[in-house]
Each structure stands twice: as structure tokens, then as C-alpha cells.
Design brief:
Layout: E1 5-10, H1 14-23, E2 29-36, H2 39-49, E3 53-56, H3 58-62, E4 69-72, H4 79-88, E5 92-96, H5 103-116, E6 120-123, H6 130-141, E7 147-155, H7 175-191, E8 194-203, E9 209-218, E10 223-229, E11 238-242, E12 245-249, E13 258-263, E14 269-272, H8 281-292, H9 303-320
Parallel strand pairs: 1-2, 1-4, 2-3, 4-5, 5-6, 7-10
Antiparallel strand pairs: 7-11, 8-9, 9-10, 11-12, 12-13, 13-14
Helix pairs in contact: 4-5, 5-9
Protein name: Gfo/Idh/MocA family protein
């Protein structure tokens, strides 16, 4: 990669901090600017990461001539608005998952990126992990036989009152959008597009889902069961099962340190899958590659795939009764 890419960070929360940390380990990346609605917060973040430009207000980042790509790490409910603003300013966008609150919002964002011919990608970092390349290689080898079933879970115990991000419907709270997107996205990536879904959820006092379980039928006929929770610490595994055995993405499956291949009548084989930095480096490398090559989307996380997943999330919420102010 010959061209240095100048990054702007939108938001200063934990996820933005994790991504800024990753950019330190990303070849060809320059942390050029950070924007926050609170100037003191932007200044503190900039000091921590040695960022030269600390900007007050998100629109100032869209207008900043010293930024190429913007990473959006704001609360879920702000993703679409922030992405539209950045794209209108000619900035490439890497938008944290979930891409938006619903498919309608996502369609507006994708339409603007396409009309302006500006790069846009959902930041589903698991898709860019070296482990996923190894999983695809193993599946393609046929060693498992036909893979007809998968299971995946992501759950942790969340704390905070009703105004906390994870429990606040105005901020897009709930288990599904925060962590349920992981098993949905990765099973769809490995087994094919979702043809149908059935879901059940436990809703909390604020109306968001505390935990959701859903089954998927994928193109080609494979089935998967997925679970997410804000009240249970789950194993964090993804297992693909075929005629001759299983392939497991070991915990945490969204950033797997190893894969375990378990074939009938053979000892289990553990396959190390190391990654760069804290793991976010790989999606940053892909975004920079696309930007430098003048692409408006990544072939590994296309606009159509993002829209498809947002539609499935909408259907799950419709079945479980979770509604947001932006719907």
C-alpha cells in the first residue's frame, strides 16, 4: 500500500477507542482527526492518541479537508445520520455495526454513497479476521462433507439503568442489534443468504430485547440457530456441522484465537488463527485498500449484504415486538 490514508474518528466511546488503538497497528494509516459534540472529550481523546485535529461537532469532521476515511463509532441510533453527513462531505465511511436502526435508514445511506461514488462499508470486523479465511478454506476442501447446520451465540451480562445505551430504545438498545448481529452476519456469510427466520425474545422494562433466540434457513437449505443475550454469559462459540464432523470457531467466535476441527474417528485438531493488534486492524486494512483503489464497497462486505442483514434484523424485531423511535 503506497498511499497513507488519513482517518477521522467520529465518537469517543469504548468502540472508538478500540478502533483508534487498532489504527496504530495498521500499515498506511494516519490518525488525523477526532470529532465529538463535547470539545473537552475530543481534546482528551486526541491527547491520548496523539491526534492533531480535535473537532467540536460532527459536521466539522465532514468538512475537514485533512481526512479521507471516517470511522463512525457513535450509538446505534446515530449511525445513519452520521454516515449521511460524512458521505455528503465526500468522506469514505466505515460505519460500526449495526449499520443503522432499520433497512429503510440503511437504504438511504447506501443510495447516497452510490450516487456520490464514495466508499462505504459496514464495520463487521469478524469478516476480515484471518480465521474466516481459514474457515472458508476448510469448508471448500470438503473435509466436513455437506455442512447443513450451525449454531452460534453471543451473550454477556450488561449493567446500567434504563437510560444506559444498551437498555435505551432511543439509542437502539437491546441484545439483537448490539451482539445478535454477530451470529446473524457470520452464519449468513458462511452458509448463505437468509431465506426465512423465526425468533423469540425476552423484552425488558424499556421495551428492548434482553435476549433473543432465532433460527435461520439459508439459501441452499442449511439451518442455523443463533442466540444473543444481555443477561447471560454464553459460551461464545460458532459451530458448523457437516456429514463428517464439526468445525468450531473457538471463543470468542467473533475474534477467534483458534479453530477446532473435529472429524469422526479422528482426534480433534486445534488450528491457531492469530490476528494483528486487537483485531480491528484487518477491517481497517480492507477499508484502506478499497479507498486507495477507488472502490465504493468491499467485496467482502457489500452494500447488498448489509441491506439484506438489516432486513433480517427488521423481521426479527417485528416478530418479537421490539420497536425504535426511528422505525
Amino acid at each position: 500500500m503506497t498511499n497513507n490514508v488519513r482517518w477521522g474518528i467520529l465518537g469517543t466511546g469504548r468502540i472508538a477507542r478500540d478502533f483508534a488503538t487498532a489504527l496504530r497497528d495498521t500499515p498506511g494509516a494516519t490518525l488525523a482527526a477526532v470529532a465529538s459534540r463535547d470539545p473537552a472529550t475530543a481534546a482528551g481523546f486526541a491527547d491520548e492518541f496523539d491526534i492533531p485535529l480535535r473537532l467540536e461537532g460532527y459536521d466539522s469532521l465532514a468538512a475537514c479537508a485533512d481526512v479521507d476515511l471516517v470511522y463512525i463509532g457513535t450509538p446505534h441510533a446515530m449511525h445513519a445520520e452520521n454516515a449521511l453527513s460524512m458521505l455528503a462531505g465526500g468522506k469514505g465511511v466505515l460505519c460500526e455495526k449495526p449499520f443503522a436502526l432499520n433497512r429503510g435508514q440503511a437504504q438511504h445511506v447506501v443510495a447516497l454513497a452510490r450516487s456520490r461514488k464514495v466508499f462505504l462499508m459496514e464495520a463487521m470486523w469478524t469478516r476480515f479476521m484471518p480465521a474466516l479465511d481459514e474457515v472458508k478454506r476448510i469448508l471448500a476442501s470438503g473435509v466436513l462433507g455437506e455442512v447443513s447446520q450451525a449454531s452460534a451465540d453471543f451473550g454477556f451480562v450488561a449493567s446500567g439503568g434504563p437510560e444506559a445505551r444498551l437498555f435505551n430504545p432511543a439509542l437502539g438498545g437491546g441484545a439483537l442489534l448490539d451482539v445478535g448481529i454477530y451470529p446473524l452476519s457470520i452464519t449468513a456469510y458462511l452458509l448463505g443468504a437468509v431465506e426465512s427466520v423465526r425468533a423469540q425474545a425476552e423484552l425488558g422494562p424499556t421495551g428492548v430485547d434482553l435476549q433473543t433466540v432465532f433460527t435461520l434457513r439459508h439459501a441452499g437449505g442449511a439451518l442455523s440457530t443463533c442466540a444473543c443475550s444481555l443477561k447471560a454469559r454464553t459460551p461464545g462459540l460458532l459451530t458448523l456441522s457437516g456429514r463428517h464432523g464439526q468445525l468450531r470457531l473457538d471463543a470468542p467466535f467473533h475474534r477467534p484465537p483458534t479453530l477446532t476441527l473435529m472429524l469422526a474417528d479422528a482426534p480433534a485438531r486445534v488450528i491457531p488463527t492469530p490476528y494483528l493488534g486487537n483485531g480491528y486492524v484487518h477491517e481497517a486494512i480492507e477499508a484502506q485498500r478499497c479507498w486507495n483503489e477507488g472502490l465504493i464497497e468491499s467485496p467482502a462486505m457489500t452494500h447488498e449484504q448489509t441491506l439484506h442483514l438489516m432486513g433480517v434484523l427488521d423481521e426479527i424485531r417485528a416478530q418479537t415486538g421490539v420497536k425504535y423511535p426511528g422505525d
